[in-house]
DNA sequence: CACATGATCGCCT
DNA sequence: GGCGATCATGTGG
């Protein structure tokens, strides 16, 4: 299916354990999930090997009431359909004629909310900016629209799992990036990032405004 | 680092 | 027909 991942993202699945998360994790409040996704790993198997990255930046999109969401006012088209699936589904869309963006769908089936994966860190060998930004993240992992609607909890070739040995990250919170058209919703504090990660995207100015907690 | 611009096409009105 | 949940590149401070 689709594109090949960057070889520098090759990982040893045994050292990470790849402990899967329960379905209930993905049916909770979307903003909480966006926060909790920081520090998790997204991994893909391709040609007999595993490739993965640690998520360091996300955004929550709150569905029908959120002018920045594709499902705003209940819009339901073939493209957006995966957002209406059960939590744990992947939603991928194509923007600006050249980039893909990957989202983890949240809440039970029928409620179209999701978390955009904005940035991740690769293993040591990977350059800092390789996965820094939603388009780059998809490009580096080889994620395209072919994956939209995929169940991340199916034990298949694309998975989300916990990092066994690492302490809880310090989380920064800001408004979302690139949604200036969304009226009041553009100011909502729904972007979450690892304050100690060098791979976070966006203007440094925004990231320095420490709204972090926990 | 900040800001501006062009590339490029699927999706919805 | 118009516009993006973006990025690379170029300019200037």
What does this structure look like?
The chain is of the alpha+beta class and 214 residues long. The protein has helices at residues 13-16, 30-37, 134-141, 204-208, and strands at 10-11, 41-46, 49-61, 90-95, 99-106, 113-121, 158-161, 171-174, 191-194. Strands 1, 2, 3, 4, 5, 6, 7, 8 and 9 form a 9-stranded antiparallel β-sheet that branches. The protein is globular, with a radius of gyration of 16 Å. The mean pLDDT is 94. The chain binds a DNA duplex (13 and 13 nucleotides) through residues 59, 61, 68-70, 75, 77-79, 93-99, 101, 103, 116, 118, 133-136, 145, 176-179, 181-182, 203-205.
Name the structural class. alpha+beta
**Biggest sheet features:** 9 strands, antiparallel
Computed CA radius of gyration, to the nearest angstrom: 16 Å
End-to-end distance, in Å? 39 Å
Tell the overall outline: globular
Query: DSSP strand (E) fraction?
Result: 25-35%
Give start-end ranges of low-pLDDT stretches.
none
| Number of H/I helices | 4
Global mean pLDDT = 94
Count of DSSP strands: 9
Percent of residues in helices: 10-25%
N-to-C SSE series? EHHEEEEEHEEEH
């Amino acid at each position: 299916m689709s594109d090949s991942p960057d070889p520098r993202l090759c990982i040893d699945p045994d050292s990470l354990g790849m402990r899967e998360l329960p379905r209930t994790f993905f049916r909770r409040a979307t903003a909480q999930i966006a926060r909790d996704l920081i520090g998790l790993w997204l991994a893909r198997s391709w040609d007999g090997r595993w490739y993965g990255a640690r998520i360091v930046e996300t955004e929550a999109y709150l569905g029908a009431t959120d002018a920045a969401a594709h499902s705003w006012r209940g819009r339901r088209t073939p493209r957006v359909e995966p957002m209406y699936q059960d939590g744990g589904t992947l939603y991928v869309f194509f923007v600006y004629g050249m980039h893909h963006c990957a989202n983890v769908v949240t809440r039970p089936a029928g409620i179209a909310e999701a978390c955009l994966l904005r940035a991740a860190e690769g293993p040591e060998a990977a350059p800092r900016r390789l996965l820094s930004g939603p388009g780059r993240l998809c490009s580096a992992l080889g994620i395209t629209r072919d994956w939209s609607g995929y169940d991340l909890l199916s034990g298949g070739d694309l998975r989300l799992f916990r990092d066994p040995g690492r302490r809880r990250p310090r989380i920064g919170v800001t408004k979302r990036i690139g949604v200036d058209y969304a009226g009041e919703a553009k100011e909502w504090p729904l972007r979450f990032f690892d304050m100690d990660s060098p791979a976070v995207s966006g203007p440094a100015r925004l990231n320095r405004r420490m709204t972090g907690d926990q």
